[in-house]
Amino acid sequence: MEYAFLGEPGSGATLRLDYRAFAYAGKFVVGAPGKAALRTADGSPAVPSWEPDEPLPPTVDASAFDDDVIAAVSFSPDRTDPDCCRLRYVTVHVARRGEGLGPRLIDRTVSRLAADGYERVRIAVNNPFAYAALHKSGFAYTGERTGIAEFVLERPAAEAVPEGERGGERYRAGLRAFRDGDRDLDPVERAFVASRLEADGE
What we know:
Low-confidence stretches: none
Radius of gyration: 17 Å
Distance between the termini: 39 Å
Number of strands: 7
Helix content: 25-40%
Strand order of the largest sheet: 1-2-3-4-5-7-6
């Protein structure tokens, strides 16, 4: 597998992802955000043995998909802060989830954004699994939320937020906000949050 920086914001870079394998697939055909991906080194399919649960409609050509993509991220400058870049969408092939590929992709992309001159990177997440993965990638909960039940996390582009500053009470505050928030967690999410809080002594 290799990391591919496909284009900075405004470059027109696009990806055609199979919507049956990737969440947010439709967001990657938009050319304005920058994009990066983890893909197979030789262009072979990311998961050759994967069988989708549903067939494609006859109007969709499967050969048009970028089937060598394992994970992808899109990003663009913050509209109000030119020193900050926002990760917009992160997606991992459904058959490769749980392998730590999302954090690996984010780490490489944040390093590239730092080299491009950004001072900070932000992302908004709407589920506790992404929240925990981004904590491991050096992001800290800011205490802010967007209008669509997403929690905002941030880190300096050049280095992770030190564990002592992003963990402990700050980390638990985000977990409690998921547990007690307006969005009903599904049973798996609720159990995940409970186990993380319990591990931290709650």
